What we know:
Helix 4 runs antiparallel to helix 5. The model is unreliable at 274-281 (pLDDT under 50). Among the domains are: 4-110, 4-Layer Sandwich (Deoxyribonuclease I, Chain A); 116-157, no CATH class; 176-213, no CATH class. By secondary structure, the protein is of the alpha+beta class. It has helices at residues 13-26, 95-110, 132-135, 179-186, 195-213, 232-241, 246-255, and strands at residues 4-8, 30-34, 45-47, 53-57, 66-71, 74-79, 82-87, 116-118, 121-123, 139-142, 154-157, 260-264, 269-273. The strands form five sheets. A four-stranded mixed β-sheet has the order 1-2-4-3, with no helix packed on it. The protein is flat. A hairpin with a 2-residue loop joins strand 8 (116-118) and strand 9 (121-123).
Amino acid sequence: MVKVIQLNLNHCRAAQDHLAQTVIEEQAEVAKLSEPYKDRNEGVWQHSSDGGAAIWSSGQPPVHLSQRTSRTGYTRAKINGITFYSCYIAPSVHISEFRTIMQDIADDARGNRPTFIKSGRESIIDLTFASLELARNCVWRVSDIYTHSDHALIITQTSPRLPAPSSRQTTYKAHTLNTVSLLAHMEGVCVTGDANTCARNIADRVKEACDLSMEKATKGGNGRRPVPWWNDEIGSATLHRMGISDYLIELEADYFEDTLLTYSSDVEEHEYQVTGGVPQG
């Protein structure tokens, strides 16, 4: 992360002197300035052609500026791979001049380097198309590499956005595995298509077989253990203090004791211990 500060110095020497301390205290790597008092050292300072805007590489140590340009109303420079613009347009300029400067900034930021040059004619006729997902992480540039062609070399760097890992994963009770059922559900798996498709199909088939051959492990409550000093006696005392009668406490304990849910499936009979719920009726 690059820390940038922005300030209009109003051509004030004291303000620019104080800025030198501010960038140290704030640990700012870049300062974008309007109406500076005077220029600083070449290589770490770039100003607009009219002197109204400046970019200062103010880090410790400062990073040398590259890809610099100076135009009326703005200046541009690249620091640590990031292109920065600093602009200042005086309120007194005519609206037509204001529009010209803004259009110049837009054209410079968008880039207008030709991809085809022949007989003194230039044009941007070579394009690269990408999906919206890839374009979000894409860097596209026209290279200076010699190609022995009248077309320029285009270099594109992109990377797909990987799906966020799921926070909910299915776990199973390994001791409930029915090997015969698992093997039966894995029979006849057909692997076709490219590598990614095959991997997804196999993973889906394995999960389906596991769902049918093992019990899923579930966590009750919020999954957190009670504090070490907690026990049933303290729990009962807490209920008493809340005004709950012994009859209701015993009824709740009897309701959840040795309660099993039994059912049959096509594979085998299952039993589940009931560990939560509220009597209805």
